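Subject: Sanity check before I submit

Could someone independently write out the structure tokens for this chain? I want to compare against mine line by line before I put it in a report. The sequence has 146 residues.
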Amino acid sequence: MIALGSDNAGLELKNRIMAYLDGLGLKYKDFGTFVDEKCDYPVYAVAAANAVAVGECEKGILVCGTGVGISIAANKVRGIRCVVCSEPYSALMSRRHNDTNMLALGARVLGIELALVIVKAWLDSEFDGGRHSVRVKQIMDIEDRF
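---
Independent answer below. Compare away.
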């Protein structure tokens, strides 16, 4: 299952992503926002990220105006490795080398078609493991040091 979250700036793109996931037959849970009114993206970032962190959802996709703020908020949740992407290669490599478990997108930065290409690249990629496992562990160990 995929956790979804957005603020009001990302609502339209999040809805398009849900339609795309429906077309693929993938299940998701939408953590909001559900209405086009100003709201605070950290609320939705943390709700979706927590679902990923505790195993309720396998992965998550977040959307705000740039993808930056919502990704920063998600990365404050222990166990989350959220990447903000504006092109598909970084999305693919973030999965292969960094085992990212959340993707953030900027609705004011990306067109819908490019955003869906990025989502596809991210969803279709898997972690390579091997030497990258050591690096991911080093990254995750940082949470225990500070």
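---
OP: Matches mine. For the report I'm noting this point. The chain has a mean pLDDT of 97.
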